[in-house]
Amino acid sequence: MSEDSLFAEAEKQLDKALAIYKVDPETELRLKIPQLSVQVGIPVRMDDGSLQIFKGYRVRYNTLLGPSKGGIRYHHTVTFDEVKSLAFWMTFKCAVVGLPYGGGKGGVTVDPRALSQMELERLSRGYIAQIANFIGPDLDIPAPDVYTNSTIMGWMVDEFSKIKRDWTPGVITGKPISLGGSLGRDDATGRGGFYVFEILREKLGLAQSKIAIQGFGNAGTHFGKLAQSVGHKIVAVSDSKSAIYCEQGIDVASVERFKKETGKLKAVVYKGDVASEVSHQEITHEELLALQVDCLAPAALEKAITGQNAASIKAKVILELANGPVTPEADGILEKKGVVVLPDILANAGGVTVSYFEWVQNKEGYYWELEDVHTKLKAKMEKAALEIYNIHKDSSCSMRTAAYVAALKRLDAASQARGTAALFRRI
Predict the structure, then answer these.
(1) Is the same domain home to 264 and 142?
(2) Which pLDDT score is estimated for 339?
(3) Is residue 310 scored above 90 in pLDDT?
(4) Which residues have a catalytic role annotated?
(5) Same domain, 248 and 116
(6) Higher pLDDT, 3 or 118
(7) Could you tell me the pLDDT band of residue 425, with boundaries at 50, 70 and 90?
(8) Is residue 22 assigned to a domain?
(9) Quick one: which of 90, 204, 173 has its CA closest to 357?
């Protein structure tokens, strides 16, 4: 990979926090190496009768705080290094918002858009069949991620339950409502990022803001709609193919609808069923990142902002709705420029938080109203955001380092509670 491997970059983020917050040496040791890594080959009979074997991965990184938790992504670029890195970040993400979870992640190297629905189902069930002995509602709990969704999670929980001969809804979160899913899970990542942005923006010197969103998927779309609903102006959005800029502001819901109906990204406004085009510019992805905006929300894949393009960033605040969109080299450049980065392990933790709510509901057999989910999510995200902001101010460190410090406090306490060399030498 260019620059360092993704995992090496993730470790650099931890090392910065360890430099200002000392933990027991055994805690640090536990956080450097994943507990379990599984690579599988998934045989899938294709619609034309041929056989293909897809590479799949599952990493249970750390379980100091509880069973591991983390999504499953389908993407043609998925590697073990990426999955390990994402599991690492999940360890800290769960700790940041105070969830009783460790970190895990899974992935399959595949372009899901090239598969039929039946092929996708066979792949999903096959993946679960291969990792069934390594997951469970009190062991490791998968969820959706890039290019996976509630339908795929439904196939997975059904397959796991068939294998175990026991209906086990708590093994997977992000499921359809009819299979034990939670209300409020669909927009949880974007909504959580919105709550973080709103509770911190005045402290960061922002009022009504101009926002650019890089990545018009689930998280970016929901964040954009919520931000627009309280008066912020969304001036640019992009997907994997194109980017658009509209100085007077984009109607996010209309753009989302148009893309669903046509597959294209265009600034439009709907009146009934008729879409009217609004004057806008088609720009490059790099031009979107360099726009003069108050907030830039990278919501796609890793390494969107690197040492090569960080100097061009003009946003005052970066809200990381994606995992790992800013590299450590870029972090250093942005910090010198005075750009505040609201880190992924805080900003996009809304998804795992509502996944936790779903898991609790599955265990209780009692399901909450949507308003309850939103209220509990808002409280969790705001509490974590303010804790991290206070560490940031008190320790004069970046928001990212402050988030790792907040997580390290909980992880270190859990490690020491199990007994360390310092304890046993006294006995």
Answers:
(1) no
(2) 96
(3) yes
(4) 105
(5) no
(6) 118
(7) confident
(8) no
(9) 173
Let me know whether 206 and 130 are in one domain: no
Over residues 363-382, the mean pLDDT reads: 98
- The per-residue pLDDT for 196 is 98
Write the pLDDT tens digit of every residue in 206-246: 988 999 999 999 999 999 999 999 999 999 999 989 999 99
Do 411 and 27 form a contact (C-beta atoms < 8 A)?
yes
Residue type, 95: A
212 and 164 within one domain: no
Is residue 137 situated within a structural domain?
yes
Same domain as 138, residue 278: no
Predicted confidence at residue 387, as pLDDT, reads 98
Q: How far apart, in whole angstroms, are the C-alpha atoms of residue 320 and residue 346?
A: 8
Asked if residue 263 and residue 222 are part of one domain, the reply reads: yes
Domain that holds residue 198: 188-347
Number of domains the chain contains: 2
pLDDT at 426: 74
Same domain, 85 and 165: yes
pLDDT band at residue 64 under the 50/70/90 scheme: very high
Using alpha carbons, select from 160, 162, 108 the residue that is nearest to residue 132.
Answer: 160
Q: Which tokens belong to 267?
A: 């600034």
Q: Could you tell me if 345 and 324 are in contact, meaning their C-beta atoms sit under 8 angstroms apart?
A: no
